[in-house]
Amino acid sequence: MGISLEMEALALTSEVPAAVEEQPKQDVLDKALTLEVPPAVEEQPKQDVLDKAPTSKVPPAVEEQPEQDVLDKGYIMRRYEIGPKLGEGGFGLVYAGTRREDGLKVAVKFSVKAPDMLYITVPGHPKRLPLEIGLTLMANKGSSAPEIIKLLDWQEDTDQFIMVMERPFPCMDLFSFMELHGGTLHERTARRIMWQVVRAANACCENGVFHRDIKLENLLVNPDTMEVKLIDFGCGTLMKKVAYKVFCGTREYFPPEFKFTGKYYAKPTTVWSLGILLFEMVCGYLPSAEDLFMTTANIWTSPGLSQKCCELICDCLQPKPKKRLALEKMHLHDWFKVQSRELRGHGLRHGENIRK
C-alpha cells in the first residue's frame, strides 16, 4: 500500500503533548453562581486556559445590546424569564428562556469567570468583551452566516458572564439526532447537513474566528427542516497565521500534526475535524487505525456510500496538512455538486429514509 512509517505511528499512537487542554466534561468550580437563577444553577465547570491572541479588528455581527451596567446583576432576570435546564458542558449551564417583552424563545448560558479569562476588543463595543462573547459576535459578522448561532444579549458581573442566544425550535444536537435515527445518517441527509457545516466553518474563518471544537454535540439540527446551527465558541480563539501550540477542544478531533509536533494551523485543523464529522455521520463511529491507513492511501470505502463521499473523507483525513483539501475549496467538491434546492431545501422529501 506504500503507507509511510509516519502514518503507522499516527494510527497506533494515542499520546498527545502535555500542552493539550481537552475540553472538560463535568469539572465544577467550588464557587457558586451569584445570580438568582433556578436552583439547579449552582456550580459551573472550570474554563480551560485559551491561547492568548492579538486584538481583533473585525466588526460585530449583531445589534449591540442596550447600554447597561455590567455589575447590574438583575439585568438579565428583569428582561428574561428563565426556564428549565437545556444542558451543560465544559464551560457552563444552558437554560431555556423567554424574552419578557415579546415572548421570544431564547437560550441563556451561565459561565463562571476564570481568574485568567481572556478579553478581546470588538469594534463598535466600547469595552473589551469576554473571549467567547466577542468570538460569537465576530463569527456572525454580516448576514451570510445563518448556520451560526446568534448572540442576542449578554451581561457580565464580577463572578460570571451570561449569554442570551437564539433558540431554534424544534432542535436537537446532531449526536442526539443520529441516535434518534439509528446511529447513522443516509448519505443524502449527511450531505445536506455537511453543506451547512462547511458554510459555518468558512464564515468563522473569514471573520477571524477559529472555532476549534466542531463536533456532533456542537451542531443543532432542526429535524423538520434540516437547518443547522453551529454553537459554543467556548474553545475558540482568534485566527492567526502562525502555529498554535495549545489545543482546546475534543481529543477525538485532534489533528495528527499536533500529536507529532505539538503545533497546528487553523484551516487544516478545521478540515480534519470536518472529515471526522462526516465519517461519524455516515459510519456511526470514529475512524479506526485501519480506516486512517486507507484514507491516507485514498482507498477507503464503505458499503452503501458513493465514491465521491469516500473521496471527500479521504481528502479531509490526510495526515499531512498540506495534502488536505483546502477549506475554501471544500464546498466545490464533486460530492456537493447536486441541485442547490436539495442542499438548501427545507425538510426531507416525503418518505425519504434518514437512516442508511
UniProtKB/TrEMBL annotation:
GO terms for cellular component: cytoplasm. One of its GO terms (biological process) is regulation of mitotic cell cycle. Residues 37-66 are annotated as: Disordered. It catalyses: L-seryl-[protein] + ATP = O-phospho-L-seryl-[protein] + ADP + H(+); L-threonyl-[protein] + ATP = O-phospho-L-threonyl-[protein] + ADP + H(+). Its EC number is 2.7.11.1. Keywords: ATP-binding, Kinase, Nucleotide-binding, Serine/threonine-protein kinase, Transferase. ATP binds at K109. Residues 80-336 form the Protein kinase domain. PROSITE patterns: PROTEIN_KINASE_ATP (PS00107), PROTEIN_KINASE_DOM (PS50011), PROTEIN_KINASE_ST (PS00108). SMART domains: S_TKc. Gene3D superfamilies: Phosphorylase Kinase, domain 1, Transferase(Phosphotransferase) domain 1. Pfam families: Pkinase. Belongs to the protein kinase superfamily. CAMK Ser/Thr protein kinase family. PIM subfamily. This is non-specific serine/threonine protein kinase.
